[in-house]
Structure formats: C-alpha cells, structure tokens
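Predict the 3D structure for this chain.
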Amino acid sequence: EQYLRPLVPYMQKKWTNNLCSFLNDQKFPLSLFYFIDYRVLIKSLNKVEVNLNRWLENDFDFIKNLLYLNKALLAGGSILNCYINNFNDSVAYMNDIDMYINQKDLLEIVNILRMNGYYAYKSVLASEYDESFFRKNNILSHILFRKSITIDGIVSYKIVIDLIVVSDDVKLLDVVKNFDLTICQIWYNGISVNATHFSNIDNRHGSLQ
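Done. Predicted structure below.
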C-alpha cells in the first residue's frame, strides 16, 4: 500500500511523463517473480507463441510468464499479426505489443519489466477517438516501455511494450471484447490464444460492432 500511495495523484488526473520518472526511479520490493524458475511453466508453443518467440527472442519466456502470473493480456493487432502470419528472419515483425493490466498489478509488472531491462519513456495522452474508448472501458493510462539494445556502439530500441492500465473494477477480457473491429478481438494470456470471432479472422473479414 505504501508504494501505491504516491501513484494516487497520477490516477486522478491526466497522466504526464512525470509518471515515467517515478516508475523508473522508485525502489520497489523485490518481486516474487524473481525467485520463480519460469522455465518449468513453459509448455508446447502454439503458432502465436512461435511468432512472439521469434520477435521477442530472449524476452519471450519472462513476458509469457508475466502474463500468466499476473493475469495480464496481450491483445489486438500484435496478436492478430502473430496469428495470421508466418514470420521469417527478414521481417520487421511488429512495432509494439499492447499489454493490458489492472491497476492493482501495475507496480509488480513495472518491477518485472525493469528487472528485465525495460524502462518507461512516455505516457501517452489519448487521441479523441482513443479517449472515448478509454472512458468507455475505464482505462486509466497508456504507458510506453522500451528496451535499448547496443550493437557495435549503436543504440536501438527493438522492443516496445504499450502498457495499458485498466481500473480494478473492470475485467480485462471485457475491454478486449469491446474493440470496435471483430478481427482485433483476439488475446493471449501466457498459455492460450482466444478470440471472439475466429471465423472472421480466418476469413480475413472483420466487421464493426
């Protein structure tokens, strides 16, 4: 509770990039996640996991189990992309992945991301369209995390995670099922892939709802 208290002002108004500084600078309690040998949780990979693994490389295992242990979801375009495409080494797979979490899990997940080399670099103000979606689904904020990689002295940012924080009184699945396009209503929870309209996805034909 003492670590949640400083976040209250950010939860009650428009989030600013000061939040990123707070999240990056705080010394949170060591996550129990640190002590778990998550390799024992890995099972055979489905197609989405195979493609995520190719893109995330060494970060796939910890993200897979972050989702499972914290009941978070990857959803939307990135998972749709993984489901319908067969990637190869020459493809720039995705620009980012959207991770949906509840507010109560924010500090735990931030702690896990930081332990694995990620840091918050931007808190995004919603566009007019997104703001309507945010209000309708009680989304509190959209924070971008990235991990820098240095190769031959050149710094690049290969992986970007869009952390979308949802109020604790809203189920994450309800948010994902509320996407406007039926083909985007697809999600991955660290174990399995599900969707509301697999037939739409398989036929490459979505509709607005």
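The longest strand covers residues 139-151.
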